[in-house]
Amino acid sequence: MRTGFAFVGAALVGLAGVVVEAGGVAPAPKALGPSDKVVVTGNVAPPARPDSGLSNAAGLVDVSAMTDSQTLASGPDFAVAVPGGAMTAAQGASAATVVATAVSGGFNAAIALSVSGLPAGVSATFAPATIAAPGAGSATLTLAASAAAPIGTYTVTVVGTGAATIRSATVSFTVAPYLPVPVTIYSDGFEGAFPGVWHVRHSGANAWWGSSTYRAFAGTHSVYCAGSGSPATPAGGPYPANMSGWMAYGPFSLENVSAAEATFKYWLKSQATNDTFQFMVSIDGLHFWGFKKSGSPSGWQSGTFNFDDALLPTSALGQPAVYFAFIFESDGATQLEGAYVDALTITKTVGGTPCVVTCTAASPAWGAPGSPVQFTGTINAASCSGSPAFAWSFADASPQSTVPSPAHAYASVGTYAWQMTASMGGQSCVKNGSIAVSAPPACTLSCNATVPAAWTTRTPVQFHAAAIATGCGSSPAFAWDLGDGAHAATADAAHTYATMGPRDWTLTVTAGTETCSKSGTVAIGQAVRRNLSRSH
Fold it and tell me: Model-level pTM greater than 0.85?
């Protein structure tokens, strides 16, 4: 067992860890403490705007390039065209094209743009939404397909409206199946300043990872396992005895991904078995798992680390804070040149089934100042990683609430437009509503009771109550006193009296601050018995 390190702030302190050779059994953890949070996220480039073929050398719209067959009338008129041709966007992505307008016959008015015929789950935006007078110009149309948009090809109509004149053009729009999208999270050729975003530390010998020009796979620099320290390690080594140096990158998110890997180049010359080059992953900034190599392979080697490797005890996919580290450790026996790393790239693939989030949010239509109002929110997510998150805004300058169904009291009378955002796996769902806050209306309560005037023993007496409560803030509550020590707490009750005599009953109904009572008497008599005999 060798000594590893744990991050504390931007530093590393020694803890224990074990690694295994690739192809071995699942490794035990290597410890790493909390680190500074340095986040590097990949961005998907926006869809390229198709070449419209409309702009001439002066940057003006060339009406002759319009492909839609539109004949301009002799009087004031205009035409709309979508010369870029058919559009295609995968589920969860968007496509953009140019919409052009041309005028004739002295037409001089602004032209408002709109679309019709959009399939479910597809939205359209224009930039700008209106072509300024006299009406000749162009705008960018963006069609965005949600993750749930149905796959297929649709005819979308682009409509221009100006000076009571309406003209249109059509464009074919295809919603393609969702496809995995590889995204580069981080890449480093180590040509710039080092350590930069890397967390670097050591224990044992006073040597750790640093920039080197002695060997490089590409460019002029790489990082060397003993490239920093005091005294300096000579170019080409050997590395010191009993060293343990770390360089770790992270945290970065692997939420809502189907695959992720790190690829890199390494050069290694070390004592076989005892002096090891290691590459490892952590999903909590504390425990690291991974693989090690030793010996002297020939030249630069290609390394690949699968963040979902079956040999790892826990997959890093779906985790919000992932770390990746290179480590070099030596013992006190034989020291050789060491390890170099170059051309690192960490990628994730957003793939499989797209994350789809739907939600609901509700509140009462009315609330009283100073009284808590119950808001209710839900989220439904399909194929989404991570945990759901809620953000409620109550529109009264109070802090947001992050619980799904919060209770909130408004201090002042007014109408408040609230908003709830539910998020998961990088997707969000937004719901809006309003609530009127005013002084509570007067509580009114009426009730009645229906009880027979006379009954007999051995047979249940049926008691029935009804009540109407308005503006009381709660439903009526019923309480029967049946006159012989028995009670009931429902609107309807049945009770059998054991003895004869008058029984005084009372009904009490409460709602809000109001109470309604009814009372009466039921006379209980002897049940009549009949003896039937048969003549012989």
Answer: no
